[in-house]
Amino acid sequence: MAKRIDVSGLSAFYGTTKAIEDISMSIEPRSVTAFIGPSGCGKSTFLRTLNRMHEVIPNARVEGKVLLDDENLYAANVDPVAVRRSIGMVFQRPNPFPTMSIYDNVIAGLRLAGVKKKSVLDDVVERSLKGANLWNEVHTRLNKPGAGLSGGQQQRLCIARAIAVEPEVLLMDEPCSALDPISTLAIEDLIGELKSQFTIVIVTHNMQQAARVSDRTAFFNLAGVGQPGKLIELDDTQRIFSNPSVQATEDYISGRFG
Amino acid sequence: MTSSSPAAPQGRERRTRDSRVGDKIFMNLARGSGILLLVIMAAIAGFLAWRSGLALSNNQGNFLTTFEWAPDAPKPVFGIPVLVVGTIVSAVIAMAIAVPVAIGIALFISHYAPRRIAQPFAYLVDLLAAVPSIVYGLWGALFLVPHMDGLTSWLNEYLGWTYIFDQTKSGTPRNLFTVGILLAIMVLPIITAVTREVFRQVPRMHEEAALALGATRWEMIRTAVLPFGRPGIISASMLGLGRALGETIAVAVVLSSSNVLSLHILDAGGGTFAQNIALKFAEAGDSGRNALMASGLVLFVITLLVNGAARLIIARRKEYSGANA
Ligand SMILES: Nc1ncnc2c1ncn2[C@@H]1O[C@H](COP(=O)(O)OP(=O)(O)O)[C@@H](O)[C@H]1O
Ligand SMILES: [Mg+2]
Questions:
Q1: Cβ of B214 and A165 within 8 Å?
Q2: b vs e for A17-29, b when ≥16 Cβ sit within 10 Å of the residue's Cβ?
């Protein structure tokens, strides 16, 4: 299920502005890779190029290649909708569908895929909510609106919704930045469990979090305002935080940045 | 807050009071306008009820079952069934046509058209809302009616078996169906304008949630936009329905009124409350005017009921409205 990702020579644009430039990296299956770097250096942009969500923004476009195992996601014959079905995404702000119950939120992806059988859906709801460590809290009120949950629960509901379709990769863009410390810990634990099944990429502002949850860490930076963001280095998390090979990384993680 | 605390320092209390003078003025102003509004409404309702009562007590027919409208006859007889049916049928036809088309146009403007086309298009639709109803009426009578024959006979031929599309009398298509189409065109702009704004307000993050799950654009609209916009669609439809139920002059110009109650919507004839009032008011005597007011009161009640029903529908799904998301 989990697949590896190989990015080569990837640049992304908003209109004529280049937001990220010439990024190449490999991400191993069943690992957690953290993206760190200052605001505006293009972490979210890069993450969104990995499931072709970048191009839903008007005039946004991408150059370069993203291989999922051996398939180029940007090949001419690839349908972006299909790509997004196999690469799940969790956003910065919890965004369960407000008009749907908890149950319907979890199966939203399956509904899109045309799954109708009640028994299958029931199973998926239980498995996904258990997978997201939310089952115990919500199994008595699956038909209540998802928007009635706490922020941390909503975010775990979004994770349940993303894993319900059994994606090959799970992308998370600062999934804890809107949450309290307890909910943050719950999600970090969850990430540790999910990596046995999924390839996980997580953007985080919080360096302790990167150190806690990830196997590999990528540091992004930009030369200045208006300049495109670039990948500075990608290495084992332990190395990045103890002995990075680039001075800029060291400056950033030790807080001597800017 | 009910008992004043004696420990409160004097100076502070006074200052609070001073700074609230502005608040007080505005509060009383607001309260005054509110009360004035209630008084005016009560006065209108009371007046209508009084005159209606006068009319009803003189009615020799049955207000609820008599087809005829002859309140000024020596033996006054008048009733509303023809008007009730005509009003509701024409409004239903209008809504059945206008709501889906309006949603389609609104979606086109908010989610499909490139901005450079969407903007002028939206402006055009808004402009249509500003056309006076008499202009629509004249257009309906001079253009729509003469061009309805093809559609009318087609519907009669292929859908005649449904009873409602069965044309039993030949004649000009000055019927409830034509009126319904005209009303649909008239209410289209307002429904479109409101639903368009509602669709625009769907948070981007909900749309992206759908897209990231692998939704096509249409699936995204079905999963995120339409459910979120549902209360807005209902409210917009109610605005449109209110206008369709109360439309006077355009209906008066197009419909050939008669005392016939028929659900064959392609047959000429019938009537609506507003149209009936517009046609008869000028020549009506005292008794006739009272009777028209009674009919106006009924229209008012129907509109209230419809709005109440819409509010119930919206309130029932409140916890799913997304207002707390
Ligand atoms: N929708 C957008 N339209 C135009 N520019 C954008 C958009 N989103 C982000 N950008 C720009 O792209 C650059 C990278 O942003 P982003 O990927 O959000 O950075 P990060 O997630 O690292 O904070 C920034 O300069 C930002 O202003
Ligand atoms: Mg970001």
A1: yes
A2: ebbbbebebebeb
Q: Which atom of ligand 1 is nearest to the CA of A203?
A: 21
Written as tens digits, the pLDDT of chain B (325 aa) is 444 445 545 555 555 556 688 888 999 999 999 999 999 999 998 999 999 999 999 999 999 999 999 999 999 999 999 999 999 999 999 999 999 999 999 999 999 999 899 999 999 998 988 899 999 999 999 999 999 989 999 999 999 899 889 888 878 889 999 999 999 999 999 999 999 999 999 999 999 999 999 999 999 999 999 999 999 999 999 999 999 999 999 999 999 888 888 889 998 889 999 999 999 999 999 999 999 999 999 999 999 899 898 888 888 877 776 544 3
- Please state the ipTM of this predicted complex: 0.93
Flag if B223 and A112 touch (Cβ within 8 Å): yes
**Which residue segment(s) compose the domain that A223 sits in?**
5-253
Neighbour count for residue A214 (Cβ, 10 Å) = 26
For tokens 């690469």, the residue is A87
A57 lines ligand 1 (CB under 6 A): yes
Beta carbons of A98 and B321 less than 8 Å apart = yes
Q: Could you tell which of A14, A89, A93, A252 is best to mutate to test the pocket of ligand 1, judged by most ligand atoms within 8 Å of the CB? A: A14
CA A108 to chain centre: 18
Residue A60 alpha carbon, nearest atom of ligand 1: 3
Of A56, A82, A162, the CB nearest to B211: A56
Q: How many domains does chain A have?
A: 1
Class of B70-320 per CATH?
mainly alpha
Residue with tokens 């009730």: B84
Q: Specify the CATH number for the domain of residue A240.
A: 3.40.50.300
